Amino acid sequence: KNQVEQSPQSLIILEGKNCTLQCNYTVSPFSNLRWYKQDTGRGPVSLTIMTFSENTKSNGRYTATLDADTKQSSLHITASQLSDSASYICVVSVGQAGTALIFGKGTTLSVSS
Amino acid sequence: GAGVSQSPSNKVTEKGKDVELRCDPISGHTALYWYRQSLGQGLEFLIYFQGNSAPDKSGLPSDRFSAERTGGSVSTLTIQRTQQEDSAVYLCASGTRDPPMGYTFGSGTRLTVV
């Protein structure tokens, strides 16, 4: 069964600190993996997209890693800001054309001052 | 427009009524998805349109749910005889076909069935 599991479910950190969110998947055949940020009341916004051959991709203070062998991905947030408070969703595309998307339930991050 | 537009942003309806939710995708995007997000839950796939191909309806939870996409652009999700468990945020996303694909989500329609 194609599944995407994220941990932790929720996280609270102090402003300025770093954090790492985890995503484990059992999806076959794998096409690509994305991390989305979803602010409360808004639709998800793409942060990074990685294919099988990519190990690391950065977008500002966000760095995503992918280990296709262990089927794990992480999203590292550096020097967190209050505006980073949101849900972070890991999404894996299935199939050669990558047309089926499997969503994790997300990690809710709260950054406090 | 520049993004995916959904309307209405909020909808409150009485149990048993029919509702229509609209999604206006990014111009030129051939792929369109409908998802719903219930409180505290992840995104649940509903239906997928790709160009002129037959839609993938495998995620529709019951025959009360249907969706159309006219002219390969605007899509309408219809829920008939709404039930309280239909209350959720309904999200639409559009994208291109060729992988790796970047899908853009709309802000969603918050449906509340009372």
Protein architecture, described:
The complex is a heterodimer of chains A (113) and B (114). With 113 residues, chain A is mostly beta strands. In chain A, 0% of the residues lie in helices and 61% in strands. Chain A has strands at residues 3-7, 10-14, 19-26, 30-38, 45-51, 56-59, 62-67, 72-77, 86-94, 100-103, 107-112. In chain A, the strands form two sheets. In chain A, strands 2, 4, 5, 9, 10 and 11 form a six-stranded mixed β-sheet that branches. Chain A has a five-stranded antiparallel β-sheet with strand order 1-3-8-7-6, with no helix packed on it. Chain A starts with a strand and ends with a strand. The model of chain A has no long low-confidence stretch (mean pLDDT 90). Helix content of chain B is 0%, strand content 46%. Chain B is globular, with a radius of gyration of 13 Å. Chain A binds chain B through residues 31-32, 34, 36, 41-46, 49-51, 89, 93, 97-101, 103-106, and chain B through 4, 6, 31, 33, 35, 41-43, 45, 48, 50, 56, 91, 93, 97, 99-108, 110.
